[in-house]
Amino acid sequence: MSTAEARGVFHRARGRTLDAFPSEKEREWKGPFYFIQGADPQFGLMKAWSTGECDSGGDEWGQETRLTEQAVRAVNRLNPKPKFFVLCGDLVHAMPGMPWRKEQTEDLQRVLRDVDSEIPLVFVSGNHDVGNVPTPETIEEFQQTWGDDYFSFWVGGVLFLVLNSQFLYDASRCPALKQAQDQWLDQQLSIAGQRKCQHAIVFQHIPLFLESIDEDDDYFNLSKPVRKEMVDKLSKAGAVSAGNSSGGNSRRCLSSAYSSS
Length: 261
What we know:
One of its GO terms (molecular function) is metal ion binding. It is an enzyme of class 3 (hydrolase). By secondary structure, the protein is α/β, with parallel strands linked by helices. The protein is built from ten helices and ten strands. Helix 4 runs parallel beside helix 5. The N and C termini lie far apart (38 Å).
């Protein structure tokens, strides 16, 4: 399925919001609900890992396809239906500009097309989606393919914020874009306080930390200065961060159900 065809299937975030949820109807708390969080379908990773060519391999993704199809069937069987299904980054394995990226993307979009149309998809960018060190060009590609790289939306009185965590990791090649996200986030957290939303939940690919805010810097977390700044900012607004640990078994497109009450 081409990107143009996919635009008619997915609700892409545009203008820093998601039109699947009209904010004027969703800002009021209406009682508990749940959503599904998944991460790292990462078509192409398993072959790359098996050959030890994690940076350049990944010319097969049949196993990832089957696992994602299995996840889609499981989500579709849920009753009552989840409010949405969020994928927290590393949608495909091939980095920007690498071989197989187009094919991996088209196959993932084809599989996700089978998600129940009443369950909106929410896409979060990861390092394999925009690059370890993103550029204006890689951000533009992601936006054209999957939608805005950061945005907010309301569901049932809860404010959800999607962040591009690569800006928090290394924005040296796109400092103006990081600054724009920082300013936008401050505005959104201010809105959360003014409207006294029931909850504010943040989705991002790289978690702030894995076990403790004081843990050592690692590939799978954000640096101490960044995480402490973000934790302070989010905690003052009463926001909760939901990141993705990309190590070990969590690489396997696992999904979790989260309820809001």
